[in-house]
Design brief:
Number of strands: 10
Helix content: 40-55%
Number of domains: 2
InterPro entries: TrpB-like_PALP, TrpB-like_PALP_sf
Largest sheet: 6 strands, mixed
Order of helices and strands: HEHEHHEHEHEHEHEHEHHEHHE
Strand content: 15-25%
Shape: globular
Domain Tryptophan synthase beta chain-like PALP: 17-305
GO molecular function, one term: L-serine ammonia-lyase activity
Keywords: Lyase, Pyridoxal phosphate
CATH architecture of the largest domain: 3-Layer(aba) Sandwich
CATH class of the largest domain: Alpha Beta
CATH topology of the largest domain: Rossmann fold
Cofactor: pyridoxal 5'-phosphate
């Protein structure tokens, strides 16, 4: 199997970002284990800088750029967490950040990006509007575009999350993550493949944005026309670089409804007393809905983030 990133690439990313990001804790909950019928190990990226795993890929992508290229700054489009990651990484590197955000992005994420000193351009909530605005800014400023997910330095950064999880708990049977654009899932699949090839990797995906599920069925990238879900962080279309990694390495994509996502989110808030955002609840919803593969197994669950608009809670 010819994979675009080696374990050495992931290790190099880990070495590069370690001074700038947190090594997040892995938490367990006996009551949630009982409900799920499995032994769950939650990798808590909701405690990461910017409140989400995206800090890893963002920092790796910005810090990997040659100094000459860094100086014109970086540009990206994102509904929030990647936007914050790039804004924070650019601030650390002392370079400008230009961020295109859909005007429908959660207020908490808009405020955070502005707080890191990035220049925000608001756009219509469509992939086309995001991409056109980012391309225009790139042309005007000479900034380097960093894709939220379809970028090998981003994927290598996101892979460090599962790498830490497996260093702390090498005897897991399964790892499950959410999937949107696919950067985290591709990185997770790579770390699992290199560190424990017998591990199975699953992903949870919202019903209203199930392009990865459809792509896996079709064997090629299949888009969803107007993706919509309460899981705002998972609305991006699957990137082709990610799909090339996900297709051979991921066992299955498990689809859940918005109602199931809210229920799982509430369960984690209530039982574990930690804040997770809807996108983050998707793998939890998936393993509660599709129980068979997980029964009696040791399952690593990547809790991706906790950036919730507290004025708009779904429960």
């Amino acid at each position: 199997m010819n994979l675009p990133l080696s374990f050495q690439d992931i290790q190099a990313a880990h070495d590069l970002i370690s001074p700038f990001v947190h090594r997040t804790p892995v938490l367990t909950s006996e009551s949630v284990n009982e409900i799920a019928g499995a032994e769950l190990y939650f990798k808590c990226e909701n405690f990461q800088k910017i409140g989400a795993f995206k800090a890893r890929g963002g920092v790796n992508a910005v810090m990997s750029l040659p100094k000459e290229q860094q100086k014109n700054g970086v540009v990206t489009h994102s509904s929030g967490n990647h936007a914050q990651a790039i804004a924070l990484a650019a601030k650390m590197a002392g370079v400008p950040a230009y961020i295109v955000m859909p005007k429908t992005a959660p207020e908490v994420k808009k405020k955070a990006v502005a707080g890191y000193g990035a220049q925000i351009t608001f756009c219509e909530p469509t992939q086309q509007s995001r991409e056109e605005n980012a391309a225009r800014i790139q042309q005007e400023t000479g900034a380097t575009f960093i894709s939220p997910y379809n970028d090998y330095t981003v994927i290598a950064g996101q892979a460090t999350c599962a790498k830490e999880l497996l260093e702390d708990h090498p005897n897991l049977d399964i790892v499950i993550a959410p999937v949107g654009g696919g950067g985290l899932l591709a990185g997770t699949a790579l770390s699992c493949h290199y560190m424990n090839p017998t591990l199975e990797v699953y992903a949870g995906e919202p019903e209203g944005a199930k392009d990865t599920y459809l792509s896996m069925q079709a064997g090629e990238i299949t888009k969803v026309d107007k993706p919509s879900s309460i899981a705002d962080g998972l609305l991006a279309s699957m990137g082709y670089k990610n799909f090339g990694i996900i297709k051979p390495l991921v066992k299955d994509i498990l689809v859940v409804t918005d109602e199931e996502i809210v229920e799982a989110m509430r369960l984690i808030w209530e039982r574990m007393k930690i804040i997770i955002e809807p996108s983050c609840a998707v793998p939890v919803a998936a393993l509660l809905k599709y129980r068979a593969p997980f029964q009696g197994k040791k399952v690593g669950v990547i809790l991706t983030g906790g950036n919730v608009d507290l004025a708009k809670l779904p429960f």
